[in-house]
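Let's do one together. I've listed all components of the complex below, 348 residues spread over two lines.
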Amino acid sequence: MKRDYLGISLVAILFGFSLSRIGFSSWDEVHRMFTFADLRLFLTFLFAVVSLAAAWRVVIVASRPRPSWSPRPIHRGTVAGGALFGIGWALSGACPAIALVQLGEGRGLAVFSLVGMLLGNWVYGLVKERYHRWDVGTCTDD
Amino acid sequence: MHYWPFWLGGSLLAAIMVLHWLLVRRLMGVSGRFTAIVDALRSQQTPGDSMGDAEYLAALEAATRAEFGEEALVQPAEDQGAERVGGQAVVAVPTGPQPLAAQFLFLGCLVFGGFLSAFSDGRFAVTLGLRSELVTRFFGDRLVGQVGVMVLGGMLVGFGTRMAGGCTSGHGLCGVSRFQPGSITATASFFLFGVVTAFCLHGLLR
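Okay, and this is what the predicted structure of the assembly comes out as:
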């Protein structure tokens, strides 16, 4: 358990540090990406995905026993949820990890993005219980 | 401001996702951690609303028995912890939620990582705003207006990521790189709508 916490800390600190140095935590940089004024962030993302696709192949081959990762199928919330997230990302300039990184950089307004995210997540929980019960899966049960 | 070039940032992001898998034995997903925290807080408020672990396991066992019969519950004697699929052993991935402390630790360390980056770069400062020219130009320099935009944007992010079942890390990086259809669709959707929203803002509020 202690080793787990050490691993989590190391990865999260590296992740926060890198996101900040890449410029993902800057509202203006994110908008330069979305308006295609500067393709660096898009390229960063693309480069990460391509490297990862290669890295997973190595991980799968090298792992004994072989890792089993849960599939991520399309469901009724995929497109609509993604759309709402996209609109919110362009407004707040933050995806979930970024609000926390911004907080670490001392950008005060990020507190409100964070509060909004927790609130939105909570509201979805309520709506889901009442209206639609499809299984969206979450990324932590992989 | 000199940000990292795309190849450096991209390869490090990939390395961090692999490291997360190697050290935490899960694929990284940040919005899922938000969900875990929110649900934990919610079930504390209404104790009768959610099941305890033991109750949940008992219900799961009963449902498995009803669905697949008694033999589904018999544990294979050889290598516990790993199961065999198609003749090849696969890791039994922990599917239960991580303890709440782990969720807070991860999110807290993201904050610390951001601090380390800004501090070591001489960029660290505590300000009320986001230190963004465009936010001020679009939404005015009054803090009240900016707060409203952040809360609204944040709510859409929180609602949308939970609805889609992932965000930029879980779907965008870990899902797309595994060629998962749900992740590719969600990622296409959030980038598309991010672009459309940004163009709307730049067109309307210039």
